[in-house]
């Protein structure tokens, strides 16, 4: 493994951490309905846990209401139960074979809880980024120990990884500020 390989691998792992954070932040509920709210819900489909989006069509009825239409009529009650049990504070109601999922307005207290959740997710992402930096630095030290690079190269590589870390931490901070603004907007 060379310094370039370590840098490339570190960059890829940090990008994956950012993508994971974006996915986690998308699950955090804001005052508006969006089809991604139900992406992580699992439904019992013939004994197998299956994603809701694999057994039903999720659409936006209006700004505060989602429509969930299972592809099989007998899945309506199973899907409705899965949404109710998902602990999202949603109370679906069935109208024929369409499940309407109104999203209640968030209270000020609930909004503050959501902001805390967003900050917690961001802190987890920052920890992941720092752990990736630590792994890269350990790889550089190993390369130096094995005499595969010079001390100057190792020092420069560590500086580059630190700049990369700073860039990704700044990106996390930006994502958090944007999500906070979205959550606190009434």
Architecture overview:
The protein is an alpha+beta fold and 186 residues long. It has two domains: 3-27 and 107-184, Orthogonal Bundle (Topoisomerase I, Chain A, domain 4), CATH 1.10.132; 35-102, Gyrase A, domain 2, CATH 3.30.1360. Helices cover 60% and strands 16% of the residues. α1 (3-27) packs antiparallel against α4 (108-145), α1 packs parallel to α5 (151-184) and α4 runs antiparallel to α5.
Which key phrases capture this entry?
Topoisomerase I, Chain A, domain 4, Gyrase A, domain 2, 2 domains, four-stranded antiparallel sheet, two-stranded antiparallel sheet, 5 helices
Strand order of the largest sheet: 3-4-6-5
Number of helices: 5
Q: Biggest sheet, open or closed, and with what strands and sense? A: 4 strands, antiparallel
Helix and strand content put the structural class at alpha+beta
- Rg is 22 Å
- The number of domains is 2
CATH names the topology of the largest domain as: Topoisomerase I, Chain A, domain 4
Name the CATH superfamily assignment of the largest domain.
Ribosome-recycling factor
Look at the structure and give the mean pLDDT.
86
In N-to-C order, the SSE pattern is HEEHEEHEEHH
